[in-house]
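To: structure subgroup
Subject: Chain for Friday's discussion

All,

I'm putting the inputs and outputs inline so they're searchable in the archive.
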Amino acid sequence: MKTAHEFTEHSALMDSLKRSLREIDELDVAQLNRIGLRTYEEGKWTVRTIFQHLIDWERIWCFRALIFARREGTIPVGHDQEVMGANSNADDLTVEHLVNELRAVRQSTVLLFESFSPRMLDIRCVFSDYDMPLSGIGRAIVSHQRHHFRILHERYFPLIDRGVDG
């Protein structure tokens, strides 16, 4: 039986994951399309690459969560986001495709974390430079999305107002 603390912690995590799914649903795809392949600075990722990055990293974090929850014993290795970004074909995909894929991945993440018991969510996950409870992985997924959505609003959406063709 869950304690009041376990119930609150699990509920807060699930609320946060579900809220982040609604944030995906609220994206203005038309506005993202208007940005096109432009970046706010040379060498920065396109909007499409940012979405592919979110998708890739969420899948990696969920793999890590599953390994720890099932006590499989493997210590997940780190991954190089720059190498992964450079080798994605994100700019060949549509914004619609990437947003739909991110939504599907997040729906899967919600179901995965709903399946974890409070005991599982307290399992210590130690790998690379990280030491956190399993629930921290769920919080990291949400925070990662919020970070990148904030960058989109602050640095990419102003490109639309500049009227620069991409």
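Points worth raising on Friday:
Residues 53 and 85 are 6 Å apart (CA to CA).
The first strand starts at residue 124 and ends at 127.

D.
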